[in-house]
Amino acid sequence: MVVTDNVNFDTFRDCLFSAIVENPTGGGRKGSKRASVGRKGATVQQQATTEANPSELADFSDYLAAEIFASFPGELQELSYHALQDDAALGEKWSLPLTLSVFEDVSAHIPGDITDSLTAYGLIEPPRSDVQSFIAPVLSAYVGAATTPPPKWIETKTNACEICERDWVPMTYHHLIPRAVHTRVMKRGWHEEHQLNSVAWLCRACHSFVHRMASNEELAREWYTVEKICEREDVQKWAQWVQRVRWKKT
């Protein structure tokens, strides 16, 4: 039986959707070109994505997510930060980075029909890539999202994504000044210390888009507020497209 009423299902579906959008083949869309990712402006991949039919992409992602999530063991479906804290064995198995044996075990239980679908849509290209190579980053993103401890910025959480304004998908928090460059930011005096922990609440798809559009340093120097990010033409086009992505009611 497909498990779609689990609170973690929406999180997994969002991670899977992002992986399909980010895939260089464009999810099997005819005529799409492989992207050479630049640091500024929309990439070829992003342009191809915004030309895709959001309804069809949503239906395809929904189908894949439901079938794959249903193949997960119960402990993976019910994963949470507190579950890892309360069970040492569970914590050892599902803490990031995940081991190769975990990827192999999860992949082995994914239905063969899903492998066929991923191949047909160009998301995997045997023998160069397989279902395991496709699901590994999706699984890592899902586990990371499901087991992230409650942030201290929880009081700032919004009900809708601050870019696309969708309120029916899970929210993630984006460090407007990426933590990886905090030392450089302070050394060069780009921002005051109290600004370092500023966050925006974004859906997984918009969160991934922001990190594709610019490097961490560029985000820190130029795109350190939601308002500045939303001024970009490529972000506006992306938001208009992703707003049309809706999941079917189950």
Automatic annotation (TrEMBL):
Bias type Polar residues, positions: 43-52
Region (Disordered): 26-52
Top-rank taxon: Eukaryota
PANTHER family: HNH DOMAIN-CONTAINING PROTEIN, TUDOR DOMAIN-CONTAINING PROTEIN
The name this protein goes by in its record: HNH domain-containing protein
Organism the protein comes from: Exophiala viscosa
